[in-house]
Amino acid sequence: MTPLLYTLGVVFFVLAILASIGLHELGHMIPAKAFGGKVTQYFIGFGPTVWSKQVGETEYGVKAIPLGGYVKIVGMLPPAAEDLDEDAEHPQYDEDGNRVIRIRKSNTGMFTQLVSDARAAEWEHIKPGDEDRLFYRMAWWKKVIVMAGGPTVNLLIAFFIFWGVFGLYGTRTPEPDAGQPVIDTVSRCVIPYNEEGRDCAASDPPAPAYEAGLRPGDVITSFNGTSVRDWDQLRALIRANDNGRAVIVYERDGVERTGTTSTTVELRPASASDLTVSQVGFLGVTPTFHTAVVYGGPVYTLQEMGGMTVQTVEALGQLPVKVYGVGRAIVGAQEREQDSPVSIVGGGRIAGEVASTDKAQVTEKAVFLLLLVAGFNLFIGLFNFIPLLPLDGGHIAGALYEAIRRGVARARHRPDPGYVDVAKLLPVAYVVASALLVMGVVLIVGDLVVPVRTEF
Questions:
Q1: Known Pfam families for this protein (predicted)?
Q2: pLDDT at res. 374
Q3: Which of 86, 186, 291, 371 is most buried when burial is the number of CB atoms within 10 A of its CB?
Q4: Which helix or strand (DSSP H or E) is residue 64 part of?
């Protein structure tokens, strides 16, 4: 592993993610300003300010902790009806002719006070003349566009990266050679799946294939009396055999031979693309492979991303359980699963390892790093569409609910119910934010203590 290449890989990944974050926030800011909203801050990162510059009414800057970003759109939270010191029939105006809106702070109760404080903090940024530029007063469809703009940018970044890779490099998958399987490698011992890559230890049991006398170059023609047509059929027969007796007929240098052994039961992934592990029969051989290359354009890219989206949504549903598994791995209660989620720290570590490995060509490394960035953007985009505050999807859900509620009121000839008060959901937002913070810390610690291994 070359330290310089490792560092370059980490730097590339971090800069790519920071650029993605910056573009995500532009996806919010540009439509917000286009619709007349007031944006006072645009920052990449959190924590202490490293650099900032005031341009017009917006402060642009970078903060010390590069784990996200934000734009401050004025008026995200509406005032509560009971706190609004405003007479709709007799509005008050200041000496410059601006309408006066005041917020009273007279609430009791923990959550009520939290909401009240959040409203007051929000309205400290509002100046006379801003009344018609407040986010909560925008039409519902404008709110949807503003809040969906950020994650949509991430999805577009992922799309264009995937399209470039699929169009120029193609999708390359190893496929077994056609016909009866020719053995490429024979394992000398049985190594657990989560420890693959290490050498055999004295405590490791011998692999069934090695015990049966199989060697590279042998052609397997029969398994337990069933004539073998191709590798897929043989693989299915082995996995279904559990720990049963296995009689293997094979050819070596044109001479037919027979080997007898017993397959062993091991945790193995379903396939190269499906890393879901289960207990199956294991023999310990791999066939000769060739690389199949498929090039694709935008339609192919959308189809591939559709499958990735399904897998990502399924992964999001399992995220709390997966993070819990990472926590157990940190304390040594279990091994870290290969398909467990990683933080930006883990992504940077993977990028560094790939960039510095000597097991891949420069083109393969570049493609892997691009796909890593695209995968992160796809995940970030879909994650932010979850309809829970403080995520973008929570604000989108609020805007859609406002549209439905107002539409129903119009259809039933009832008074306009007004704006949806998303501030009432702030207690939920605090719980969700706390959970996200805990999961983020667990993943970062896990990526430092028990990192996911790369396949290169």
A1: PDZ_6, Peptidase_M50
A2: 97
A3: 186
A4: strand 58-73
